[in-house]
Amino acid sequence: MPWQTPKALEDDPQAMARVQAIMASPGYRQADQDVAFLNQDETRGVRLQIDYLKPELLLGQHGVGHTIVVFGSTRLQEPGAARRKVEAIQHALAGDPADAELQRRLNVARSIQEKSRYYEEARAFGRLVAASGKGPEDCSVTLVTGGGPGVMEAANRGAFDVGVKSIGLNITLPQEQYPNPYVTPELCFSFHYFAMRKLHFLKRAKALVAFPGGYGTLDELFETLTLIQTRSIAPLPVVLVGEAWWRQAVNMDFLVTEGVIDAEDRELFWYAETAAEIWQGIQNWHRASGKPLLNDNKK
To answer: What pTM was computed for the model?
Structure first.
């Protein structure tokens, strides 16, 4: 066809050079393949749409029904790794006992080591959630984490231990990060916008389990509590793992006493200590609500 070949050089020796210049121009680049165009402020709406839509379609294709969300510190380690970190700092401090920075790091490492039991509980909880289904391909109740290390790694690892799929909702950050190695590859997503990631955390959620953590954990916890408190989403069980830690980190009773939340708002969550206690509590909550979580999940 005429449009499949450029203008003949015999008619215009400069025609091919002009055509190549046109085809190299950003304006000629197809819009959906033009990264610079898609990264403009004016196209943010499109980026928000596809940031939401890609995981939505893939989760649907894999039959993901309900999810159990697990959050917690990325800095918590499994017991063996935490112990090695303490030993390495102790060794360094032995050569320079007066080093205040090394002493500070040792105190932090010991604190992380003490909390490493939560890694084991998160891993055990992941196994319980995963084992509640009908088999490796059953995603009717699926564990979901932020896809990172620490507590999230532990929960995904628990599902991995029993050969069942789990989800990781990762986020692009200025510092390069890696997804933990236990998320199911086809269910590990990388979000650009925190808002879309948050939406997917709660869209299918039937429980939120928060282990000790930092700003990210607190952010997800309080956003969920706010949405439940304001009736913006349907109620769901919220479990804080490690009562002693959480009571020191966030004094909810003080907030009630100060009048900034109502006494009934204190009932939007409860504390638990072990994986079995968490999982049983979530099932009891749903059973009491009249809609058992596993009613159609496991025969």
So the answer is: 0.89
